[in-house]
Amino acid sequence: MADRRPLVLADLTGALTAIGMDARVFSVTDYLGPNLWSSALHAAFPRIDGLYFQSRLASEPSVAIFDDRAQLVPAGMPTPLFDFPELGPYLTANQIGLAPTDDDWTSNA
Question: Which among 70, 89, 95, 98 has the fewest CB atoms less than 10 Å away?
């Protein structure tokens, strides 16, 4: 990669009241609120590459990169999620199950 430089991340791990939010935004299961905050920060701060925040699932700091601002790896062929070798251990460690596609798990029958 020709354009190597440090990432510029908005640190959202500390006090957030200065920007009118608090840590509840990272604990919800409906991602509309977090997505709106992410979009607003993206629009308001064109020099940041992404967000540094406390993950609800991983219980540790995580990073979300704005892909229009920082390319982390050269573009190539996508890997289907089910072919990604770390998917199984991640799902197991976080106690996440996947419903079969032919199972209508949304019905009460």
Answer: 95
Does the residue 99 lie in any domain?
no
Reading the block at residue 22, the tokens are 């608090």
Q: Is the pLDDT of residue 105 over 80?
A: no
Chain segment 42-72, per-residue pLDDT in tens:
999 999 999 888 877 777 888 888 888 887 7
Rounded Cα distance between 2 and 55, Å, is: 31
- Nearest CA among 72, 29, 28 for reference residue 49: 72
Using a cut of 0.70, tell me whether the model's pTM lies above it. no
Which range marks the domain in which residue 70 is found? 9-93
In a domain, 44, yes or no: yes
Q: Is the pLDDT of residue 10 over 80?
A: yes
- Rounded Cα distance, 52 and 8, in Å: 10
